[in-house]
Design goal:
heterodimer, A: 61% helix, disordered C terminus, B: 1014 residues
Chain lengths: 235, 1014
């Protein structure tokens, strides 16, 4: 358990250094696969419940089975898995970027309720930077999927959930939000892995010009807009 | 004067109605004390009555009218955060303008008005039209129950005469917090209750669905509550404890989502400890304290510093420290009060602080050593000034090896400097400085320190040198040893040692050796002259004083008897007798680990007045160990630095019992004794002085101990006989008086003053029979004699054969033949073998699988199978032989080589009348012998003397078995056949290869009776 935590910490440190390097130099990696792999690894890291959810549950005393049963993602907190799969790459990156902005706000609000040495916020920022780089890269890439017309997205990302008046309800609410966050990052990682597979299968296609427009729009953490109601997230 | 008193009294009466009665009585008292003239009395009485008239009117008004003091406008509100009922009301009394005390009796009911749960009298001073407030904290969350409140009043003022009556009750006022709740099916209260550890808390839930089965948990534990109403349940927790900063979770779950509350339990706020203030610069005060244990809540308690003289206060930014700016108005005294406060408690602690007495200067800085020589160093430092005229008292400490060796106090204003002297060369020191306020010492500042090392100087002492002299071919070889100089005397790093060898017989010859450090010995080969050797140690500065050793070219007296001594805890005490009066000193030398080679030489120099010493282990060397023999040699040093051996001593720090027993050889074993010897046992390398040996003897028969032995018991309780050998040099022992044919066990173990060796290796011996040695003395020579005879017989076998059992006579050598030749017929010859035509040769395969050799065969040897004899028909067989006569088979067993060499063989026609093979009767040995004898005789008989040119020895063989010695088990039918084994030539000496090969076999040719016997 301790070794796993150490590995995760090291991995997180390495990733953050990579990201900080990217941000510090202000340059994005021009290698698609390298960037995609980095995004996948970041998503894998952030989907791990032991980074946020588990410490939160431990710290707030929510580990009883009754409470665990009700620590669940609320509909509308995050785009559903189906919705993410339906998105074009451009919209996917856009949605991801918007959702990361929401997550950052929530993490900021949760700061005092989380264990002290949490790297979640740094991870989210780094992930956002890489999304931005990916959007830039795709705007000039030969990715066939980028040429596809932009599909309707899952709707704007919601505002951070209104904190309930009761501390107890807030605990459950935050718990559900963190669970949804990990689920969302897991789905994002799967989608990103799907990119790699499709890229390997159809390299011969030309780039998507439509992505250029999307890439220009995709800046890390834009203003958050209201999400339209969507379907139930997977349990 | 008296009139004035009355007036004053009257005024007072008007002001305070409550004192009316008392003052009136006093008035009478004053009135009846008057003793003045009657005129004056009349005037005063009139005046008094006039003055009293309005007062009486006023009094009748107060007492006659009931006070209309019923509370008005009673309003009840709920504070959910504090779980308080807040009451607000007014008392309208237009007739009274002054304040007066009133009592308000308040009743609180729960769920229904008749269920009164609280009754309290609230006393206060009421002004006219004042709005009054009163709060009541409910232990049960107010949301879980409807509360009703009413009150009544009573004037409780001394100015109002009795009787004091309660007013009427106000109407019931309802406080219902449930109205504000929504339509959620389940509510749990109180929300986010902040409680102190150890207090009691009541939690309740309201269930709107009566059918719902609600389960409630405190953390993970299912708990059961008390039903207060149809849909209200309460849970009372006593003495709650702190679990975590984020609170204790209490939740209930029905059909839907769980509802719960978080009890934020705070630890009890502790009073600040060790509250003190100080200043570093007389400008800012810093007050510190120990806040005690954390209350465990995210909301930290606040700390406020209040100064009473100036009336200022400041909210502290830290929970254990607060800064206070010193004002410019020269305030010296400060009375600080530190107030720690949280939701539940307020703790305070105060100190009176004099600014001048609390100066704690900042640590000095820029401490540097300068001008560092071998024995002196100057250190400088700087301080932060306090004020313009204040000085600091600085303490300079010099530390060597962690200990303070010098300490100096210096008054400093800005820059400090001090010369440190009496330092040791090449030594690392630490200088450290701290300062205090000179005007009023209170506390030293923090220390600052700096290390420095003094410069090197030449070694101050000659190295301690000793020598070991060995003579090889008459020439002394000197090994010089020296001890490294101590740090105190080396004064730096020793780089090398110079060894100067001066031949005293040839003063001009000097030999100089330079030995690099850290070597501590060197070897010098000298001739038989006398020498003086000087050794100096050198560091980077220069050499040390020289140490001299004189060597004689001839070996001294080594034949000194060795004495023994015993070690003590302190080492080896020894003493000696001086030989000369001019000795300049003595040296005791020994080996550090004598059991390990080579010897690590140690020595101790002693002055000329010493005749005894104790040799103890040096801390840096190997310690003396128990059970190790140390050999000491004591030398006397002459004025010419020549060493003469005085004494030898050997000793043990502590003797131990021998660790092992000698390896004993047993010899001379007889029926009554045997000899034991252990001459290889080294007594000098044992763990103690060997004082003798014990010989243990155990007998199986348990016989009595022999003379000289004593009975003893071993550790295993077995009985044993023990003999003590007192002489450690005696290493043989004869065990006598033993019983023949008896088993014994023996053991030889040495003993020292500490005990004997291990008793765990008994050897067994069994004494022989009493006469066995006699038998041995007879039998052995006999066996030897027989053996010699056999060897002789073997060597002379041919001779013996010729003499004892000669072979078939050689016709050529026959005397008869020579006689015949000589006398009768000189032409008679012996038939040549070439003239003999053999009729058949039987080849017998030996079971060993030997290769058969054929002579004149018609079949190849490979065609022979198994062990069946192969027959070679040399005469016509049954098919081509028409003759009726039986065949004759010959087998040659042995005959004279000379004859064989000639290749004699023969064939004798056999008449049909010849007797048949007599197999049946031959089954018995007697018959066999008879038959052999008969055949032999017949053969001889049938051969005429003159015609016979070849003598055959025919031997009958069993036709059924290859083994001639085994009797036939199944004798075949007698056949008309005489079997003969043909004699083959077996050369005794050189022969043809084929024959030689045959000779290794039993080359017999045997006629198969089934094929050849007719």
């Amino acid at each position: 358990m301790r070794a796993q935590r150490m590995q995760r910490t090291l991995l997180s440190l390495v990733l953050r250094l990579l990201l900080l390097c990217t941000v510090a130099t202000g340059k994005c990696s021009g290698k698609y696969h390298e960037l995609l792999l980095q995004l996948q690894r970041q998503a894998d890291l952030m989907q791990d419940p032991s980074t946020l959810l588990d410490p939160y549950i431990r710290l707030q005393g929510l580990h009883s089975p009754v409470l665990q049963e009700h620590c669940r993602e609320r509909p509308g907190d995050f785009p559903s898995e189906d919705a993410l799969w339906r998105l074009s790459r451009q919209d996917f990156l856009q949605t991801l970027n918007t959702t990361l902005g929401l997550i950052l706000r929530m993490l900021s609000a949760l700061q005092q309720d989380l264990p002290e040495p949490t790297n979640a916020e740094m991870n989210v920022r780094g992930f956002g930077n890489n999304i931005h780089c990916m959007a830039q890269l795709l705007s000039g890439s030969s990715d066939p999927k980028a040429a596809e017309p932009t599909q309707p997205g899952p709707g704007p990302t919601p505002l951070p959930p209104t904190p309930p008046s009761s501390t107890f309800q807030r605990k459950l609410r935050n718990c559900g939000f963190l669970r949804g966050y990990h689920r969302f990052m897991r789905t994002a990682g799967q989608v990103l892995r799907g990119w790699g597979e499709r890229q390997g299968r159809s390299r011969r296609h030309s780039p998507c010009r439509a992505l250029k427009r999307g890439a220009r729009r995709t800046r890390p953490f834009p203003e958050v807009r209201r999400l339209a109601p969507r379907g139930q997230p997977p349990r | 004067m008296e009139a004035f008193n009355v007036i004053i009294f009257h005024n007072r009466f008007k002001e305070t109605c409550s004192h009316l009665k008392l003052n009136f009585s006093s008035l009478h008292f004053i009135f009846f004390r008057r003793r003045d003239p009657m005129a004056l009395f009349a005037v005063l009485q009139t005046t008094f009555l006039l003055a009293l008239l309005p007062l009486r009117t006023y009094q009748s008004e107060v007492l006659s009218e009931p006070l209309p003091l019923t509370p008005e406008s009673l309003n009840v509100s709920i504070n959910s955060t504090k779980q308080c009922l807040h009451l607000q009301w007014t008392v309208h009394n237009p007739d009274y303008h002054q304040e007066f005390k009133m009592v308000f009796q308040i009743q609180i009911s729960r769920f229904k008005a008749s269920n009164v749960i609280w009754l309290e009298n609230y006393s206060t001073t009421v002004k006219r039209n004042q709005v009054l407030h009163w709060s009541w904290e409910s232990e049960l969350p107010l949301e879980c129950a409807i509360h009703f409140v009413r009150m009544r009043t009573m004037v409780d003022d001394a100015r109002i005469p009795a009787p004091r009556l309660w007013s009427n009750w106000s109407s019931w006022e309802k406080a219902d917090a449930q109205n504000s709740l929504g339509d959620h099916p389940l509510y749990v209260f109180p929300k986010d209750k902040l409680v102190e550890e150890g207090s009691n808390v009541t939690v309740c839930y309201i269930s709107r669905n009566h059918q719902d089965n609600i389960s409630c948990y405190l953390e993970d534990v299912l708990i059961y509550g008390r039903q207060l109403d149809q849909n209200v349940w309460a849970f009372e927790f006593k003495n709650v404890s702190f679990i975590r900063k984020t609170g204790t979770n209490f939740y209930c779950k029905g059909q839907g989502d769980p509802e719960g509350v978080v009890l934020l339990v705070s630890k009890v706020l502790e009073e600040p400890r060790d509250f003190s203030c100080e200043t570093q610069d007389l400008k800012t005060l810093t007050c510190t304290w120990d806040p005690g244990n954390d209350t465990g809540l995210i909301q930290l308690p606040s700390y406020t510093l209040f100064e009473s003289f100036s009336g200022k206060k400041t909210l502290c930014k830290h929970r254990n420290r607060c800064d206070w700016q010193v004002t410019q108005d020269s305030q010296e005294m400060y009375n600080f009060t530190l107030v720690a406060e949280n939701y539940f408690r307020k703790r305070s602690v105060s100190i009176l602080f004099n600014l001048i007495h609390g100066v704690h200067p900042m640590a000095p800085y820029s401490l540097f050593p300068k001008s560092v020589s071998a024995t002196n160093a100057t250190v400088t430092w700087k301080v932060y000034s306090i004020g313009s005229s204040s000085a600091l008292l600085c303490q300079l400490q010099l530390l060597g090896e962690g200990k303070v060796i010098q300490q100096h106090n210096i008054s400093v204003r800005v820059n400090g400097e001090y010369l440190l002297s009496e330092l040791k060369p090449d030594t690392e020191y630490m200088a450290r400085v701290r300062c205090a306020y000179a005007d009023h010492f209170w506390k030293w500042s923090e220390l600052i320190s700096q290390n420095f090392t003094t410069a090197e100087a030449a070694p101050s002492e000659a190295p301690d040198v000793w020598r070991d002299v060995t003579f090889v071919s008459g020439h002394p070889t000197v090994t010089l040893f020296w001890k490294p100089l101590s740090k105190v005397h080396a004064n730096g790093k020793i780089l090398f040692y110079n060894v100067v060898v001066e031949n005293l017989d040839e003063p001009s010859s000097l030999k100089v050796l330079s030995v690099p450090a850290p070597a501590n010995s060197t070897k010098v080969t000298l001739n038989q002259s006398s020498y003086q050797i000087y050794v100096t140690a050198h560091n980077s500065v220069g050499p040390s004083p020289a140490s001299a050793v004189a060597i004689s070219g001839h070996p001294g007296n080594e034949n000194v008897e060795e004495g023994r001594m015993n070690g003590t805890e302190d080492g080896f005490p020894m003493s000696w007798k001086p030989q000369s009066r001019n000795a300049t000193g003595y040296v005791v030398e020994w080996c550090d680990s004598p059991q390990h080679l080579p010897c690590v030489l140690r020595w101790k120099n002693l002055g000329p007045t010493n005749t005894d010493t104790v040799i103890s282990s040096e801390p840096s060397r190997c310690a003396f160990r128990p059970g190790v023999r140390y050999n000491f040699r004591i030398y006397e040093i002459s004025t010419k630095r020549m060493a003469h051996l005085l004494e030898k001593k050997a000793g043990y720090l502590k003797e131990l019992a021998p660790s092992y027993n000698p390896k004993v050889n047993m010899s001379n074993l007889t029926s009554h004794s045997f000899t034991l010897s252990w001459k290889d046992y080294p007594t000098e390398s044992q763990t103690g002085f060997i004082q003798g040996y014990y010989v243990y003897l155990k007998s199986k028969t348990g016989e009595k101990c022999h003379r000289g032995f004593e009975k003893t018991f071993l550790t295993d309780n077995s009985v044993c006989c023990k003999y003590t050998i007192d002489n450690p040099d005696q290493k043989t022992f004869v065990v006598k008086d033993l019983q023949p044919e008896s088993a014994y066990e023996f053991l030889v173990t040495p003993y020292t003053s500490a005990g004997e060796g291990p008793l765990d290796d008994f050897r067994k011996v069994t004494t022989p029979d009493e006469y066995s040695h006699i038998l041995i003395h007879i039998i052995l020579p006999m066996v030897f004699f027989v053996f010699v005879i056999m060897i002789i017989c073997y060597l002379k076998s041919q001779w013996l054969k010729d003499k004892c059992y000669p072979d078939i006579p050689d016709p050529y050598k026959s005397s008869v033949l020579s006689l015949i030749k000589f006398k009768e017929n000189p032409h008679i010859t012996i038939m040549n073998v070439n003239d003999c035509v053999p009729d058949a040769i039987e080849v017998v395969n030996k079971p060993e699988g030997s290769k058969m050799q054929f002579v004149g065969t018609r079949k190849s040897p490979t065609e022979t199978k198994g062990t069946k004899p192969a027959y070679l028909d040399l005469l016509p067989t049954e098919k081509n032989y028409s003759g009726p006569g039986p065949c004759i088979c010959f087998e040659n067993f042995t005959y004279n080589q000379a004859a064989s060499d000639l290749g004699y063989c023969g064939h004798f026609p056999v008449t049909p009348q010849a007797p048949h093979c007599q197999l049946g009767p031959l089954t018995s040995p007697e018959n066999l012998l008879k038959t052999l004898e008969q055949n032999y005789m017949n053969s001889l008989g049938e051969i005429p003397a003159g015609e016979a040119n070849l003598n055959y020895v025919s031997q009958l063989a069993s036709p059924m078995s290859g083994d001639r010695e085994s009797p036939p088990t199944n004798p075949p039918e007698p056949a008309l056949c005489s079997e003969y084994k043909m004699q083959m030539a077996i050369p005794l000496g050189l022969a043809s290869p084929a024959r030689s090969e045959n000779s290794s076999l039993s080359s017999t040719a045997l006629l198969d009776p089934r094929e050849h016997c007719h």
